[in-house]
Amino acid sequence: MWRVVLRVALSISALWLAGCAQNPADLPLSDEQSLAPPSLQYLGVGGYLLRWQGEAIAMAPSFSNPATLGQPPLLVEADTAKIDALMPKADDVSMLLVGHAHYDHLLDVPYVLNQHTPKAKVYGSKTVGHILAAAVARERIVDVQSHMADGRQAGQWFYSPQKRVRIMALKSEHAPHFMGIKFLQGSVDEDLTELPKTVWGWPEGQTVAFLIDLLDATGEVRYRIHYQDAASTPPLGLPPQLLGDVKPVDVAILCVGAWDQVPAYPQVLLKRLKPRMAVLGHWEDFFGNDPRHPQGLRLQDIQGMVRVTRENLPAGATLKLPVPFAQLALPAPQRHE
Question: How many beta carbons lie within 10 A of that of residue 219, not counting itself?
Fold first, then answer.
């Protein structure tokens, strides 16, 4: 027991002594702007905004980025002024996806839901729902954990109001943060009456990945996107074989943070998905940073993730490492015969 305590203490000390974030000058960054839909906009950390044929979905917008003297925080609270300044117009969003309940993914979601995406429902784990219940109407919270794909078993599809988007949650996991140690584990098992004020009040819960299908007017899948906001150990995070469905994945959204703390990530995932485009997110430092001037995550081999991703993409596939607020054009649609 004392060895585990010592490892945790050393890891926390290492994080606090990690110093400055990395200079991103040597990274292959993308900074495209003003693209017409369908496009994917990176919001920073694990957040994205996706528009398709009159509908939009958001993924875990996170802007507050609290810190204690430039290091990981102990107390956390949404910075509403910062959210208002940085959140793009999103009143057309009908679905907001959250992969897990850590503060760097969920802290800003209550305010975003209530002030910026008034038409949206939020889709996440039971823990996500129990935390959000303190500030969001219960009818706007959808539990996907009870209906997620698990191994070979397919999960339930959830459709947007206009049925141009559908999502399926996939059982996944969150990689350890550092030296094989995962912080902020656990779950919240009943609805809260107020939002947590400390980092410990935002435990991981069940982490999920998502399949996101963009549908045309006939219901045919024009694009399939695989989204992860945390690295995972295969087969966790992999999509199941869908009976009678042979649509391949067009875009894989991957997580740089802690990618090297789990085996075979992202190699196995990319070999299974064979995407035409890979997007690397959650690469920039989020401890008190300004997302308009991003710096690389401390203690992370970002170049290594870029290299491994490139080595495992199919021939002709593209890789994007976007800066916050950059827009990415989706590959030209393909009909699968």
Answer: 11
Burial class (CB in 10 A: 0-12, 13-18, 19+), 69: exposed
* Residue 200 and residue 103 in contact, taking contact as beta carbons nearer than 8 Å: no
Tell me the three-class secondary structure of 29-71, residue by residue: EECCCCCCCCEEEEEECCEEEEEECCEEEEECCCCCCCCECCE
In angstroms, rounded to a whole number, what is the distance separating the alpha carbons of residues 237 and 251? 15
pLDDT tens, 61-112? 999 999 988 888 999 999 999 999 999 999 999 999 999 999 999 999 999 9
Q: What is the pLDDT of residues 289-299, one digit of tens each?
A: 889 999 999 88
Residue 320 has φ and ψ, to the nearest 5°, of -125, 130
Amino acid residing at 171: K
What CATH number does the domain located at 2-329 have? 3.60.15.10
Q: Which run of H or of E encompasses 202?
A: none
Q: Is residue 150 within 8 Å of residue 171, measured between CB atoms?
A: yes
Long-range contacts of 11-15 (CB under 8 A, 24+ apart): 11/177, 11/178, 11/179, 11/181, 14/178, 14/179, 14/299, 15/71, 15/72, 15/178, 15/298, 15/299
143 CB-contact burial (10 Å; exposed 0-12 / middle 13-18 / buried 19+): middle
- In the chain, alpha helices (H): 2-16, 80-86, 103-106, 109-115, 126-132, 267-273, 302-312
- The tally of CA atoms less than 13 A away on the side-chain side of residue 152 is 0
C-alpha 249: how far from chain center = 17
